[in-house]
Structure formats: structure tokens, C-alpha cells
Design brief:
Blueprint lengths: L4 E5 L2 E5 L5 E3 L2 E3 L5 E5 L2 H15 L15 E5 L3 E6 L5 E7 L4 E3 L4 E5 L4 H8 L8 E4 L22 H15 L2 E7 H9 L14 E6 L2 E5 L7 E3 L17 E6 L8 H5 L7 E7 L2 E7 L14 H4 L2 H13 L8 H8 L3 H12 L4 E4 L4 E4 L8 H4 L2 H11 L3 E4 L2 E4 L6 E6 L3 E4 L2 H6 L7 H17 L1
Antiparallel strand pairs: 1-2, 3-4, 5-9, 5-11, 6-7, 6-10, 7-8, 8-18, 12-16, 13-14, 13-15, 16-17, 17-18, 19-20, 21-22, 22-23, 23-24
Length: 458
């Protein structure tokens, strides 16, 4: 593996960014070549790449200087995907360069992580409207003929927190639906109205907007139908990109059906949101965690599936059927594996804990990426899951009908089982989050014991 550098060639000066190796349909390769060609909208692509790099270099909550981290690049046969998380792990950025945005050799298959450090960011910022941008992802790197200067980049290891972030982000994204589609100019006006981040603000501001035709109407408080913008300062990374965009789509959870203002006020209205900028031949998506004070890695959305025995067993069967396709079709996987669609989705969640699966909001489909981690690796590092397994191993779960006592003596908590599946707990975690950050360890332990009893009864 060579360092990234600007080199002189017969064709002129070019910038090459070396990869770190990756996986391909034919197995592991030391230096696979995924793509060699031009981007058809170079100025827009450079700006979008800078946005992805900027997210990786930012810490939105409790801002402070942070080391730059390298985006993950996936070649999916007909597109390139570049992904990053912010240093606080509360923002997931993904640039999808689709087939119309690429002009060159066929796109290969595989995943690697490359470094986009300050020198490369400066080079990207120099690309003008008439300058070509040539990418070569592989042993010869990424070349841009308009760049000058010489620099060397060091590869930064992929942080473990990103692994948990990938797992949670795909679960959260799969629960969002399209809520608005507005012209880029309207989106820019909304962003201009948001507060500017400061060293003290820490992205604490939460705003709401109400979709109204082809615009977003600001709201002073949460209400049914409103879309939450949690830590809204985090959306400002899109500002520079919008001058190249045609449309912006907003994704959020399904709107509340209840119009009872009192019942609405009793709920935590803070929710995740995704903004997707449609660029020439590309899409740039920013997914924000529900609370700026905590990243995706702590949301706990994968825990129910990780605690389910069948999901762990189904994972190997589903993994064998995953192909390097741009989209993963749940119905096709269900037919091929003989598993119900719900079990396929649960297995995909488990695969997501090793970074092998992501979710594309625009196409409402999962996609395949490969990272060098075993399935379930993030789950084994989750303290709630470890605590639940310890409780089960200690025999500290006693179930009597719709009630369960978890723990021993004065440390026992009561878990209530409603409608056969939904559970609540008397512990402090449940009182604080009401299931909003996934189940507590007592609910997880109860679910594990019930699943074991069901399987034994078969």
C-alpha cells in the first residue's frame, strides 16, 4: 500500500489516493480496482465530497477539535457510495454517485476506506466548473487533473463506534418515510433561518417544520404532522451543496394520527430526520440522530433482533444469499431462503451490526457493503445486551404469565408483558426513555428467556 500523493505523469499532474484493500465478489483482494473514470458533474461532486469529509471532521455536540476520519467507499456494480459519521456519531452522511454521474470503466464490487485529509480537501475546493474530476478507486487511487501541490496522507483506522453507528443508522433509516419534496432554493431558505453553531451551542437547538405543498413552514412547537429538526445546526453541512441541487427530500417517521394535543404533549416529539439533496447524477443524504447529545451508536434499535434466537440463526442463511447488487430485495431473499420477510429483516439487522448492510431511503431498499467485522460484533460490545445475557446466565429472570421479575432480592425489577409482546419495566432506564432508546437490559433478558421457552416447547 502506498501513501496518497500528487504525482507528475505524461498527461500532467494528477492526485492519487490509495485504498487499503477490500472485499470483492471473488474474495479478498489486496488492492482491488473498483472504478476508473470521470465524474460527469465534477464541481458538484467535489462539493459533495467535501460535505462528506466535513461531517467526518466535525463534532457537533460539545464541539472541540477532532482527528479526521476516513470515509468508507463501496462500489456496488452501478454506483459508488461514500459514507462517514461525525466525530460525535450523531450525523451519518452518504454520497451516492449513480450511473449517470460516472463516465468510465464498469463499476466493480467491494468496500474500502480511504483518507480524505486536509490537503485533499483543499484540492477538491479548487475544482471549478470547467475542471474535470477523474476518480480511480483502487491501487492507482483517485486522480484529478486540475489539482497541484504535493501531499501524503496516512490511513486512519475505522473507529469501533462507527461500526455501531452503521448498525443503528440502517435500522432508524428503515423506519423513515418521505414527508416533503421541495426545490433546493426553498431548502436553502430554511437552512438560512437556522441558528449558527457556536462553541457553546453544541447543536442543542430543536426546531420543527410543517410540510405545506412545495415548501416547509416553520413551527414554534411540536404538533401532529410537524417534522422535527433535532440539533438543527447539524443540517448546515448541506448549505454549500444546495447550489448544485435541484430538489431536496425530507424523510421522517410517520406523522402522528392522534389530534389530541394533551396526549401529544405527553410524548417525546424529538425524532430522527434525513435530508436528501438531489444532485446531477448523485444524491447526498444527511441522517440526524434523534438527540444531538447522543450518537447513533447508543440508540439501541438493534437490540430486540440481537436478543432473538431465530435472527441469529437466520443470519448465516441470509448472508450466503447476499450478492453485490445495488439493492437487496427482501421479497427475493424471503423466497430464496424460505424465511418470512420479518425474519429476513431481522437477519439483515444482525448483519448490519457488522456493517454489511445499509438502507437507501430514496430506493426504499437495503444495500450491501462489506467491512472486516464478524456479524453481531457490535452487539457483543453493547453493555445492555451483555447485561441481559448476564441476568439470564444467573437465572435472575422469573416469568409468571404477563409479569416477570428480573434481578435478585431488592435489585429485582418488574417487567410487564402487554399484548403478548410489548413490554415495559420499572427500572430507571425505562422511566427515563420509555423505550425510545431501545429496550432496557431487563426487558431484553425477559425476551431471551421467553424465546428459549418457546423454542423448547416446539
Amino acid at each position: 500500500m502506498r501513501a496518497s500523493a500528487v504525482r507528475d505523469t505524461q498527461a500532467g499532474r494528477s492526485l492519487t489516493l490509495e485504498t487499503s484493500g477490500g472485499a470483492t465478489p471473488d474474495g479478498e483482494a489486496a488492492n482491488p480496482r473498483f472504478f476508473d473514470g470521470f465524474l460527469t458533474a465534477p464541481a458538484a461532486a467535489a462539493t459533495a465530497l467535501l460535505a462528506v469529509a466535513g461531517v467526518a471532521a466535525s463534532r457537533y455536540y460539545q464541539p472541540r477539535p477532532s482527528a479526521f476520519l476516513d470515509p468508507v467507499v463501496t462500489a456496488g456494480g452501478d454506483r459508488l457510495r461514500l459514507e462517514s459519521f461525525s466525530a460525535c456519531c450523531g450525523v451519518h452522511a452518504r454520497l451516492d454517485v449513480l450511473a449517470p454521474g460516472l463516465d468510465g470503466d464498469d463499476v466493480g464490487h467491494g468496500t474500502t476506506n480511504v483518507d480524505i485529509g486536509p490537503p485533499l480537501r483543499l484540492a477538491l475546493a479548487r475544482i471549478g466548473g470547467l475542471d474535470p474530476l477523474h476518480l480511480r478507486v483502487g491501487p492507482d487511487g483517485l486522480a484529478a487533473t486540475t489539482f497541484d501541490g504535493r501531499f501524503v496522507e496516512k490511513k486512519v483506522p475505522l473507529p469501533e463506534r462507527w461500526l455501531r453507528g452503521f448498525a443503528e443508522a440502517q435500522v432508524i433509516a428503515a423506519g423513515l418515510v418521505p414527508r416533503a419534496e421541495i426545490p433546493a432554493a426553498e431548502a436553502a431558505a430554511v437552512l438560512r433561518s437556522l441558528p449558527r453553531p457556536t462553541q457553546r451551542s453544541g447543536a442543542h437547538t430543536t426546531r420543527w417544520v410543517v410540510p405545506s405543498g412545495r415548501t416547509l413552514r416553520p413551527a414554534t412547537r411540536p404538533s401532529p404532522g410537524a417534522v422535527c429538526l433535532p440539533g438543527c445546526e447539524r443540517l448546515l453541512s448541506l448549505q454549500q451543496v444546495l447550489r448544485h441541487a435541484s430538489t431536496v427530500r425530507v424523510y421522517a417517521p410517520e406523522p402522528e394520527r392522534s389530534h389530541d394535543e394533551w396526549s401529544w404533549a405527553q410524548q417525546d416529539p424529538t425524532a430522527p430526520v434525513a435530508w436528501e439533496a438531489v444532485l446531477p447524477g448523485m444524491r447526498l443524504t444527511l441522517l440526524l440522530s434523534p438527540h444531538a447529545s447522543r450518537g447513533f451508536s447508543g440508540e439501541g434499535g438493534v437490540l430486540d433482533d440481537l436478543a432473538t434466537g431465530p435472527a441469529a440463526r437466520d443470519t448465516d442463511r441470509v448472508a450466503e444469499l447476499l450478492a453485490w447488487e445495488p439493492k437487496i430485495d427482501v421479497a427475493d431473499l424471503s423466497a430464496q431462503s424460505g424465511l418470512e420477510p420479518g425474519r429476513v429483516r431481522a437477519a439483515l439487522t444482525v448483519l448490519g451490526t457488522s456493517g454489511q448492510v445499509g438502507y437507501d431511503l430514496a430506493e426504499e431498499a437495503y444495500y450491501h457493503r462489506h467491512l472486516p467485522y464478524a456479524a453481531g460484533a457490535a452487539g457483543t460490545r453493547n453493555p445492555r445486551l451483555r447485561g441481559a445475557k448476564a441476568l439470564v446466565a444467573q437465572g435472575a429472570v422469573r416469568i409468571d404469565g404477563a409479569l416477570a421479575w428480573v434481578g435478585k432480592d431488592e435489585h429485582a425489577y418488574l417487567v410487564r408483558i402487554e399484548d403478548g409482546e410489548r413490554m415495559s419495566c420499572t427500572c430507571l432506564w425505562w422511566a427515563r426513555y420509555r423505550g425510545g432508546r431501545g429496550p432496557c437490559k431487563h426487558v431484553l433478558a425477559t425476551r431471551m428467556v421467553r424465546n428459549t421457552k418457546r423454542e423448547s416447547a416446539r
